Amino acid sequence: METKSVGKWISRIYRSGQKYFNLELQGLGIGSGQIPILNHLFQKDGIIQDRLAENIGIDRTTLNRTIRKLEKNKFIRKDKNPHDKRSYLVFLTEKGYALKPQIGPILSGWTDILTNGMDSAEKGYFLELLKRASQNAKSATDRE
Question: Which pTM value belongs to this model?
C-alpha cells in the first residue's frame, strides 16, 4: 500500500535535491547549504545578518557556521552595521558575485526536474501548494 505521508515525499525530494546540488556544484567551492545565502545576497546584497537568517528560514547558529565557511573561501564579507554596532551587514565579494551566472541555471534546472511533465497551470498550482505548506509548517513551529 502506498503511504500517504506528505513528509515522506518532502523528505525524498529534499534528499534528491541535496544530491543534485552537490553534483552540480562540484568545482565551484560551495555546497548545497550555502546556496540559500548566496541566492538571497544575489537579490539583496548588504543585508543585516539576523534578517538574512529570518528571510531564508534558518537558525542563527547554522547561518553563522555557513557564513564562516563562505567568508573563509572569500565569497562573502561581513561589515559592522554603521547604524547598529551590535549587528553585521553581509555582502557578496567579487568572487561570490561571480557565482551568480552559474548558480541561476542550477536552481532553474532543479525546478525543471521537479515540474517535468506539468503544464504551466499545474506548475503554478504546485508552487502555490508548496508555499502554503511552507507557511503552515512555519506557523506550527514558530513559538516565540
Answer: 0.84
